[in-house]
Amino acid sequence: MILDSEMVSTTELAYIAGISDREVNRLVDERILPDFLFKTDNGRRFDLSVAAFARFYFEASDILTAPARKSAIREMAGRIKDSPGVTFSIGSKLVALFEYQPASGSRAPISGRCDINLLVDWRFTTIDMEPFFIEICERATDTARASQTIVSDPEILGGEPVFAGSRVPVDTVIGSLDEGMSLEALQDAWPFLTEALIADARLYVKLHPRRGRPRGPGGEAGGWKLQSTRIIPPEASDA
């Protein structure tokens, strides 16, 4: 069984696969995916492998019929699910089989880790699923990292997203940068901030859109005009 913690939301899947939310929902509504690859009991959540299958399904639309694409997805998903040792996220297992190769600037399979055959071999054609898993690796890694460096905990600022290990709101930092404040100025208040953390924060905000008006640098709701921004270091602020 795939745990909820190993699944991704519709928005996350759309980003990783490079498709729209609408196309993600089509995968469920048109019964393209096997039932074991997604859950709908608490919002739609998907196994990470669906990102690769989604890329295949929509990219191959000019070459293969819908029934053929659906059949290929179901055959490959079933094969992976039934392979020895697969006791967690199918997609996470396959993404783990690829690593970044700095020399070539691409991802390549790690030999000897798995004996799963990623070829769907029919009488008149052969479909190689490996390139689609390679394509989603970078975005899948970015998404996983953002979910670790940015957290939302009801016990911290009422659940407002903050940088992990701190009480610094993501909205405050991103809003300040968008209003023209430099990263160096923000680092005077919060030295732990880096360009990599800012990239994670922007991705997290994109993948977890908040309801209501967006907050600005000072935490104000949209519609208010910002007169000035002053960042007060935590040690100088009131308790």
Q: What distinguishing features does this structure have?
A:
alpha+beta; Arc Repressor Mutant, subunit A; elongated; two-stranded antiparallel sheet; 2 domains; 3-stranded antiparallel sheet; 239 residues; 9 strands
Secondary structure elements and pairings:
Blueprint: E1 7-9, H1 10-17, H2 21-29, E2 38-39, E3 45-47, H3 49-59, H4 66-81, H5 90-95, E4 98-101, E5 106-109, E6 119-121, E7 126-128, H6 130-149, E8 150-151, E9 162-163, H7 170-178, H8 183-189, H9 195-207
Antiparallel strand pairs: 1-3, 2-3, 4-5, 6-7, 8-9
Helix pairs in contact: 1-2, 1-3, 1-6, 3-4, 3-6, 6-9, 7-9
Please give a structural write-up.
- This protein is α+β, with helices and mostly antiparallel strands and 239 residues long.
- The protein folds into 2 domains: 4-139, no CATH class; 152-221, Winged helix-like DNA-binding domain superfamily/Winged helix DNA-binding domain (Arc Repressor Mutant, subunit A, Orthogonal Bundle), CATH 1.10.10.
- It contains 9 helices and 9 strands.
- The protein has helices spanning 10-17, 21-29, 49-59, 66-81, 90-95, 130-149, 170-178, 183-189, 195-207, and strands at residues 7-9, 38-39, 45-47, 98-101, 106-109, 119-121, 126-128, 150-151, 162-163.
The rounded Rg comes to 21 Å
Percent range of helical residues: 40-55%
Task: Classify the beta-strand content into a percent band.
Answer: 5-15%
Which regions have little confidence, pLDDT < 50, spanning 5+ residues?
85-90, 99-113, 213-229
Structural class: alpha+beta
Number of strands: 9
- Kindly, what is the distance between the CA atoms of the first and last residues, rounded to a whole number of angstroms? 45 Å
Q: Mind summarizing the main beta sheet?
A: 3 strands, antiparallel
Could you say how many structural domains there are in total? 2
